[in-house]
Amino acid sequence: MKIVIDIENEEPLFSQLIAQIKLAVQTNALSPGAPLPSIRQLANDLEINSKTVAKAYKLLERDKIIVTKGYRGTFVHADAKSNSATDLNAWTHEILAEATGKLRAAGVTDSEIRIAFQACMNNQNKQNIGD
User: Fold this and answer.
1) What are residue 8's phi and psi, to 5 degrees?
2) Which GO molecular function, any one, fits this protein according to its record (predicted)?
């Protein structure tokens, strides 16, 4: 599998990396159980920051595209192909766009929506810290 990162592209580097790994899974260029390079190795190969690769791997692991097995390495998840069809970012955008539309229709200003959203996020973060 060859990964190519375009630093001139407006799409964030971690998103490019995620998209290419998902595409490799969908086209069977990466099969379940296949090993992936370490974060450090892939960052060096692509000449990008290791934090960028770590972020991509974390999101891919969240989406069950990859699985990290401690010091043994990172591998393609057994259900990666079916899981790669789900796009949480698109779903999140859809839900937020729907809610924003309803709020605007009710006369809520964009500023009020931003303030309410930030308050919700702050409240959620406080609840997660206390758990």
Assistant:
1) -85, -15
2) DNA binding
